[in-house]
């Protein structure tokens, strides 16, 4: 395979080629012995025996379409025929040969502007197959390799990645490549890929005896390979001869060194080009751009700072005062309905007495509602003071209030209208036994207990203290 600049090779099986019309895929091995230009590229060729076309879009400035030439000239009529065009403009085709050869150029182009272009091959045939094998193009300088695709790269012997020692010379025209006949002559090829194929020329007019050489990859052990010769000195030159292939290399950069172990009486070691296969780039092996790394670091710092500020704000935020829980009032005494009187009403608290069985209940009320309740009960028991008729009277009064004297019966006891600043301690209760005589009733002093009453209507508390003389008790 020959070329003057590094180019990308597209095999006929590449899915990016758009075929139109009827095409048949042929096995490449069926054409191995055709002509003097070596084997077909890859494992297949596409054949069209009627009107058909193919198109391929690329980013490059030059290229060529290659195939197997089997032109039939019957009555000076060539069959098949073809035309090539770039972006819809027809270009000149290569000279037609009646010799059968693989790797024959059908059309070539150069001098295109940087950017995307489309090459189209139109075929006209009357039953004679046209065989398309591969195409290549010189990529634009700004071309970006598509992600997830492998590439086959054709590197000519003139590429700067190939370094020859002083024993190498250029092949005579029209041959393209370099050769050495000096034992120990070497050449080094730097490439990036998983495989490399060596293509050479077996020139006529030189020594025709087979010779040999050695290869070494990445400073490893060397391996020998054979260099075929020509059958006779009159034999034509052989092109695109594949001397060896190194495959299954690890992905990345490698160095191939080739040594010549023959001499001037043997077929020289030549090089026209190498073809390197570079598989798709693995995502895990690709380093992220610096911008992404910096952005990730800055974003992480900002996120951490935000979390710290949020925690600090929540810790220093004062708690909201708890809403006081409503306490249901206990022992609320509903007001009694006092029957209306015809006389003038007094604002002095009055005392009502309610009898139920042996219990007499006295409730002191005023115009605002009940103030306190004092209960008396009649009972018999060993712990009570005997009364006439086995009756006893037990009264529970606050110990903090003294019994009122009989002279204070008619004295009005002021009612506290305001709530004290400090809640007084709950007084303890004592029991006082009063014994009455048969001639005069005994009088017991009782004091009202200061209690807090929660009014549902006003939702505030009123506490008052009432002291009143109980009515005289007369045994029946």
Structure description:
The protein has 476 residues and is mainly beta. Among the domains are: 9-144, Galactose-binding domain-like (Jelly Rolls, Sandwich); 154-278, Jelly Rolls, CATH 2.60.120. It is built from 1 helix and 33 strands. It has one helix spanning 290-316; strands spanning 7-11, 18-21, 24-27, 44-48, 52-69, 72-74, 77-79, 81-86, 89-91, 101-109, 116-124, 130-139, 151-156, 162-164, 169-170, 178-180, 186-192, 195-202, 211-217, 222-227, 238-246, 253-260, 269-271, 273-278, 350-356, 359-366, 369-378, 393-398, 429-431, 446-447, 451-455, 460-464, 467-468. The strands form 7 sheets. Strands 1, 2, 3, 4, 5, 8, 9, 10, 11, 12, 13, 18, 21 and 24 form a 14-stranded antiparallel sheet that branches. It is flat, with a radius of gyration of 60 Å. This is Transmembrane protein. Residues 369-389, 428-443 have a biased composition (Low complexity). Keywords: Membrane, Transmembrane, Transmembrane helix.
Number of DSSP-assigned strands? 33
Stretches where pLDDT is under 50 for at least 5 consecutive residues are: 345-448, 462-469
Radius of gyration: 60 Å
Structural class: mainly beta
The helical percent reads: under 10%
Tally of separate helices: 1
CATH architecture of the domain at 9-144: Sandwich
Distance between the termini: 145 Å
The name of the CATH superfamily of the domain at 9-144 reads Galactose-binding domain-like
Shape call? flat
Mean pLDDT: 76
Q: What do we call the CATH topology of the domain at 9-144?
A: Jelly Rolls
> Which class of the domain at 9-144 in CATH terms?
Mainly Beta
Percentage beta strand = 35-45%
- Largest sheet, described in full? 14 strands, antiparallel
